[in-house]
């Protein structure tokens, strides 16, 4: 099978313009005839639904929350990048493109990233027009801050609630289309499978989470905008409901899963405090604009209070190791440095799993009110969770799972290898390579939804003129529904003794240990051994009480954990297969003497795209070589 | 810490509900309220009792999903959301009563989960700025004074949790609606649709069965986003002005 990324011809900076000039258009009369199923109402799904609805398509949009406004995008704190160069600090589309490619450790696709940087500026215009109240300067112009991996200020923000404000903009645009009748919204509705008709994605099987009804929806194309799979680790900064099920079910129906081992561990999260803990809380990267990261130089000081450790006994390790980026070094590098300090016994707080993020200098320089104005909601959240006041003593932070760069493989049109199945936002793999820069996920979600898919979907739909839309009564739908019902019933029938959460926790710990911030062959092999056993135990001994025909949260969780139990193995296989270190994928066998990642461009400059070959059969790895026309491969240096 | 929970259990919208009593034992003081419920639920599952169903997602206080009435107060003691409430706020051996958010427009789905789609329908009736994707002028073309932008952000911070309506003796949704009116009406981009917006939102709110505001300010007291009730007065002024314009047949 050959993987054609369908990258348009021409110079890098003209590909998208060229594409748009020649894209297949669909007339208004024909748009009305097409129905598009959009799973997910976050930035990617919500923006796609609102825009395609406005263009005249018939949209059905699904989300598992009780309202589309609650999609996990709402939780993004820090900001969104755009190459506006409003600060006149030397930013440009090219620079944002290059920073993103480099930040991704040269493992993303040039053409997609360039397009992302290009449309980034329209996103800000669009959001301001929708009423997103971005932060402003006194003169009334938009304000910016800096994020990791960049030496310019290109991040737009709305206090510490940027994701919330962007999502509300999207939600409101979506609501306008619901009112106009072009979008039909199905909240509390979970996609449990993808339906293929003659090899094309033509529908989904869903469960109404209130009544338990399992039914199908048919459409002319399907868009998965279902977010990331960070919850495979159990503890992550993701919302509790985030899952891999939609994309994993599509994988089992033949969609390729690309780079599943590329996961992002965010350096600044509140450390774990106990076993009961159900999730981890991020402290936005924006804090690194004004906070300095340090750990005690000597192990013996780790147990002391921070104020007892004099300046000369502190190791500002990011400033020391990466002087030109300092505290704004990219996430993968910052996380690994924190882990190293803790591994050396220099960690602070419970279990020695923490380093300090210290605002004392900034408070002295800028005054406390300025810091409050910038971050008060984060400081409050921190105090609420830890009981500590970060204005008076440094925050304790530790890395936590945050984002997943891997996802379903898509071509330039955001279509997977299954005709008709498109994948947007965090659910696809395309733009961030092996590491995502801060404030670039919101940008990508909105770019995909507002500005890319509305142009690219025509490439597929124009091949579907005159083909009647399949009916949910067709055999393919009936068969998939039967399989879904069977699986739900199977979960309810086990009637074992172990809770779903306990399996999820065990899987999460295993993946964190073996496929987290540092990976090696022996560890990955042991995980690949252990996960199938855990899966077997799950299907024999899990306890899912209650019925399928009611609101049943245990059942919902069980279905998601069952998928994680398969997906975790795929992640480990991918990590094992990639014998190099790049971005968030750090194989301890491949590092320099001072602990920097060693990439192997000669052998691994490709996207790994995994094909499902059947249950309990190892999947096959296909390759999409990353043909760089523009960027010269270089060792990533932030020193 | 140890607690006794009195938890509302109800199998479905049409079924009768009742309180059940469950012990919550050995709860770490640093656990959140929802983590305490997780621990209790694990225990129930081991006893073969179906776990208590409650809505939650981000567990960071921003998505607005969690929605418990704790000892009679939406989101319980403290000013945040249910998910940002920590057990150290309680006393050992407290008896804690847990109910769903209660308001006629929010039917119970099951146990502690309610249906808040009425809020979505209010927004659909006009809680947006009509704008076609791709047609926006440059973002810096219209400078917005910082105080105005900040004020709009104060209102936009609403998380749509519905605690305001659940706290109000009249089940009024005025704080929620006025926050949206305030957010969009303060910005230059939102002015064109201002009159129609306020009329439509207030009418939809009434049709959905939310009551009127009689100045209890219970809404403001429980709002996790700290939306001030002064937005209600602002909205009332806008509503009156728009109604007068409508009555005299002016273009809205
Ligand atoms: C705490 C936190 C802070 C962040 N801060 C930033 C930041 O400052 N800047 C930045 O750029 N990025 C940030 N990110 C990353 C960014 O928020 C996400 O990557 C992005 O919002 C994902 O958007 P999305 O539309 O792809 O998915 P989501 O917003 O996750 O939406 C997924 C949608 O899919 C639906 N769904 C999922 N599975 C199913 C199913 N099986 N059936 C039906 N529906 C389903 C959900 O209901 C939801 O509507 C942050 C992430 C976290 C966790
Ligand atoms: S669960 Fe998101 S606000 Fe409480």
Task: Write the SSE topology.
The complex is a heterodimer of chains A (639) and B (252).
Chain A: H1 15-22, H2 28-31, E1 35-39, H3 43-54, E2 58-62, E3 80-81, H4 93-103, H5 110-130, E4 155-156, H6 162-180, E5 183-186, E6 189-197, E7 200-208, E8 214-218, E9 221-224, H7 245-252, E10 257-258, E11 263-269, E12 292-296, E13 314-315, H8 317-321, H9 331-343, E14 355-358, H10 360-366, H11 368-386, E15 395-404, E16 407-408, E17 421-423, H12 441-461, H13 475-494, E18 498-499, H14 500-515, H15 521-541, E19 542-543, H16 553-577, H17 601-604, E20 606-611, E21 620-625
Helix pairs in contact in A: 3-6, 3-12, 4-5, 5-12, 10-11, 14-15, 14-16, 15-16
Chain B: E1 3-10, E2 17-24, H1 33-46, E3 68-70, E4 73-74, E5 95-100, E6 108-110, E7 113-114, H2 117-124, H3 146-156, H4 163-167, H5 174-186, H6 194-207, H7 218-222, H8 230-247
Parallel strand pairs in B: 1-5
Antiparallel strand pairs in B: 1-2, 3-4, 3-5, 6-7
Bound molecules: flavin-adenine dinucleotide and FE2/S2 (inorganic) cluster (FES).
Characterize the structure shown:
The complex is a heterodimer of chains A (639) and B (252). Chain A is α/β, with parallel strands linked by helices. Among the domains of chain A are: 265-402, Alpha-Beta Complex (Flavocytochrome C3, Chain A, domain 1); 475-604, Up-down Bundle (Methane Monooxygenase Hydroxylase, Chain G, domain 1). Helices cover 37% and strands 15% of the residues of chain A. Chain A has 17 helices and 21 strands. Chain A has a 5-stranded parallel beta sheet with strand order 5-2-1-9-17. The mean pLDDT of chain A is 96. Chain B is an alpha+beta fold and 252 residues long. Chain B folds into 2 domains: 3-113, Ubiquitin-like (UB roll) (Roll), CATH 3.10.20; 116-247, Alpha-helical ferredoxin (Fumarate Reductase Iron-sulfur Protein, Chain B, domain 2, Orthogonal Bundle), CATH 1.10.1060.10. Chain B is elongated and about 65 Å long. At the A-B interface, α3, α5, α6, α11 and α12 of A face α1, α2 and α3 of B.
